[in-house]
Amino acid sequence: MKAVVTGAAGFLGSELTRQLIREGYQVIAIDNLSTGLRERLQELEAHPSFQFINADVSSPEMADLENVQGVEEIYHLASPASPRFYQAYPLETIAANTLGTKRMLDFARTWNAKLLYTSTSEVYGDPEVHPQSEEYRGHVTTMGPRACYDESKRLGEVYCYEYYSRWGVRVAIARLFNTYSAALRNDDGRVISNLVTQALTSQPMTVYGDGSQTRSFCYIDDTIRGLRSMMREAAADGEVINLGNPGEISILDLARLIRKLAGSDSPIIFRPLPKDDPKQRNPRIDKAIKLLNWRPSVTLEEGLRRTIAAYRSVLSKEGAE
């Protein structure tokens, strides 16, 4: 079995790539390394079933892939996902999720492969419906600092719909809710990486607004299991499916939990809430349960324990150098 993984040097893409290799796949890993880290794939470099291509999925050079034969699965993960990075690279983010998605759909059509597109809970914007089901159309804006990500992901979904409905390209769309793990860069800028790093280095732990805004966090193992199920199951073809942990927590309570688990005495400080920051985000996963028999199994506390332990190990090694 041969698969393409775009965004393969990201924290989610690299773990997915390793799992596919373990399952006996041949994997073509694509990343332009704008936010991904090549060292995440270092142990695979010499593997006979692994090929890395340093390329932008929206660029003309991707046409060289047209002669690749035998690809059956395409996991299209390429896109900055942290506000820190997609706000630094807004046009590149738009291109990856629109032109890049169209290009990968063209490959899927040529190769008769199935494409799984990783969309995001950000398509729901600052939701007026809670929790959010796949039928909710969102409360979003095109005129704001998050729009480059939110709106390009939405248009990527439209591309998937058109290729599925017009040409029968097998596609499945996963709307991911705040995936995290120990593999998140400690400079990633997402809330868990920020708070864990601050707690372990005795820095003030930054909470934006009053911390009452809520999120739902899904550990990477559960997310990847969901993605693999969506690729395998024909019932997911042409569907949009939420993949997330329905356990909801406020950001202030998250900071307190991380501080407790890390054994930290860092103070919690408050900063102004960023523009367009959603007040609530929580998935309904009825569809994932029904079509995939999927539900998350790693609790937030267990996932945070794993993340904290890994960050502590990395920071300890850095301090010893």
From TrEMBL:
Name the cofactor(s). NAD(+)
Record InterPro entries: Epimerase_deHydtase, NAD(P)-bd_dom_sf, UXS-like
Q: Which residues form the NAD-dependent epimerase/dehydratase domain?
A: 4-244
Q: Which SUPFAM superfamilies has this protein been placed in? A: NAD(P)-binding Rossmann-fold domains
Q: Short name of one Pfam family for this protein?
A: Epimerase
Which keywords label this protein? Decarboxylase, Lyase, NAD
Instruction: Output the PANTHER family linked to this UniProt entry.
Output: UDP-GLUCURONIC ACID DECARBOXYLASE 1, UDP-GLUCURONIC ACID DECARBOXYLASE-RELATED
Its recorded name reads SDR family NAD(P)-dependent oxidoreductase
Give the originating organism.
Answer: Paenibacillus residui
Q: Tell me the organism's taxonomic lineage.
A: Bacteria, Bacillati, Bacillota, Bacilli, Bacillales
